[in-house]
Amino acid sequence: MNISKTIESYKSKDISVYENTLKVIEKLESDDTNAYINIDKDNSLNRAKELDEKLKRNEHLGKLFGIAVAVKDNISYDKMPTTCASKMLENYKPVYNATVIENLLKEDAIIVAKTNMDEFAMGGSSETSYFGPVKNPLDKSLIPGGSSSGSAVSVAKGDVLVSLGTDTGGSVRQPASYCNIIGYKPTYSMISRYGVVSMANTLDQVSILAKNVEDIRIVASVISSKDEKDMTARISDYEFVKEDYDFKDKKIAYVENEEEIYKIDQVVVKDYHFALNKLKELGANLIPVRLNYAKYANEVYNVVMSSEVSSNLSRFDGIRFGYQTDEYKNMEELFIKNRSEGFGEEVQRRIALGTLYLSSDDDQRIYKQGLKLRNLIKKELEEVFESCEMLVTPTTIDLPDKLGENVDDPLSDFKSDGFNVIVNLSGMCGLSMPVRKGISGSIQFVGDRFKDNDIINAAERFERSLNEN
User: Fold this and answer.
1) Nearest in space to 202 (alpha carbons), one of 375, 446, 52
2) What is the pLDDT of residue 406?
3) Element (H, E) at 206
4) Ramachandran angles phi, psi of 70, nearest 5°
5) Between the N and C ends of the chain, which has fewer C-beta atoms within 10 Å?
6) Do residues 150 and 116 make contact, with C-beta atoms less than 8 angstroms apart?
7) What does residue 410 show for φ and ψ, rounded to 5 degrees?
8) Is-above-0.85 flag for pTM?
9) Which uninterrupted H or E stretch holds 105?
């Protein structure tokens, strides 16, 4: 089932929106992977009734009419708490909607649940969540990836057709790969971040998870918009156009030194080369490229991300809102205990690192060096796109670990995302696509800024070729 077929089933009266939504809620309530923090049964069913009445009145139906959508719990929705999977915001309920939520509702979607995630989107396994880790539905002994863990699992299990996550350094594409679904990270500025709790302002982007490319395109066309409330949002219209992408004679770059850059699992290497051979069969002219600065991507990401985390999370002090300790002697102790008790270990670690990197004692030397390297990574990719249509890489360099295997290793969260991180650092677009069923490697289509149409259409052609076999 996909979005178009589901809407057609409503129009043909095969099933009502209410009946379908009730089935979705029942699946959410029987979840055994810990994918959800909050489920909005009452509001969802009431909205479903309203949409059924709308259909009876023969009114215009939105692009997502009656489609249940799960949303990562760092995206504000005034009908449900927004916890960021943190004790700090455990009981926080926003008084306004994020722009992406407003866009979903305008097109008749139903927001059924807020999904579990790494705390404040800091992590790559779900294991930093205050509400406990999420299990991978393909193998419940494995991590599902993160930080958009629950959003990926909600789609992989078939609870919902589509979900929203956020991607700062691979936080949608990595769990998409680990859960064997599709994850699309748009060009930076393509989608408004208003109402999305910031982790790292220059890296964050609301992103989409689904099981097929067509559903990705439909949701992207709905949530992508200009927004005067977000100064980083684009100021021109962008139309997602479905086109039959022809790989014949297209110059498609691939990374020939992938194993020199990162230590890659051999299963991932095998799946990557399977995908490259498939692109050759489709007529692509594969151009080998060497990425000389990508090997520094994780370190650069750590510096830039942590610095922005330190700044963004300074607002969470437990005084204006958020967790507040019960016992304190003075205001200084209140502030310290609120943050030390309200934030988990990983969040505290990144705040501390960012504060160090931004220190004026050495003129922010590490941070400034990180920005220089970030620019070199961006320029290197831009040079690739001067002669090639797009770049294909492995999505992750590994397969999912066992739950609990790396909880004592703070660097483990960064190990899998090197090829994802370069996309965020450059503000470009990327789409992760499975190459076979089960726990496996995935291919990532990377495009220059605002080449989102191209990578989506190319991924759809690649998807069709896999289904033809």
Assistant:
1) 375
2) 84
3) strand 206-210
4) -100, 145
5) C
6) yes
7) -65, -20
8) yes
9) helix 99-106
pLDDT tier for residue 469 given thresholds of 50, 70 and 90 = low
Q: What is the pLDDT of residue 78?
A: 97
Cα gap 424→100, rounded to integer Å:
20
Verify whether residue 171 is a known catalytic residue.
Answer: yes
Please give the torsion angle defined by the CA atoms of residues 158, 164, 167 and 170, in that order, rounded to the nearest 10 degrees. 10
Give the rounded percent of residues in the chain with a pLDDT score beyond 90: 92
Residue 304 has a CB neighbour count (10 Å cut-off) of 24
- Taking residues 60-81, report their average pLDDT: 98
Q: Which is nearest to 290 in space by CA: 250, 261, 265, 251?
A: 261
Catalytic site includes residue 4? no
Q: What is the mean pLDDT of residues 146-173?
A: 98
pLDDT, tens digit, 9 for 90 and up, residues 11-40: 999 999 999 999 999 999 999 999 999 999
The amino acid sitting at 35 is A
pLDDT number for residue 306: 97
What is the pLDDT of the chain when averaged over all its residues?
96
Q: Which of 44, 86, 125, 147 is flagged as catalytic?
A: 147
Whether the predicted pLDDT of 411 surpasses 80: no
Output the pLDDT for position 391.
98
Q: Is it the case that residue 285 has pLDDT exceeding 70? A: yes
Phi, psi of 160 (to 5 degrees): -135, 160
Phi/psi-derived region of residue 468, left when phi > 0, alpha when psi is between -120 and 50, beta in every other case: alpha
Which neighbouring-strand residues pair with 287?
253
The Cα–Cα gap between 276 and 279 comes to 5
Rounded to whole angstroms, the Cα distance separating 29 from 182 reads: 24
Could you please report the per-residue DSSP string of 410-429?
A: TTGGGTT-HHHHHHHHHT-E
Q: Residue 361: what pLDDT?
A: 86
Query: Which residue of the set 154, 171, 189, 225 is catalytic?
Result: 171
Residue with tokens 């722009």, as numbered in its chain: 99
List strands edge to edge, sheet with 206-210.
36-39, 110-115, 68-72, 162-166, 206-210, 182-185, 429-434, 442-447, 390-394, 251-255, 285-289
- 72: annotated active-site residue: yes
Q: Which residues are 207's β-sheet partners?
A: 165
Active-site pick, 63, 72, 114, 211:
72
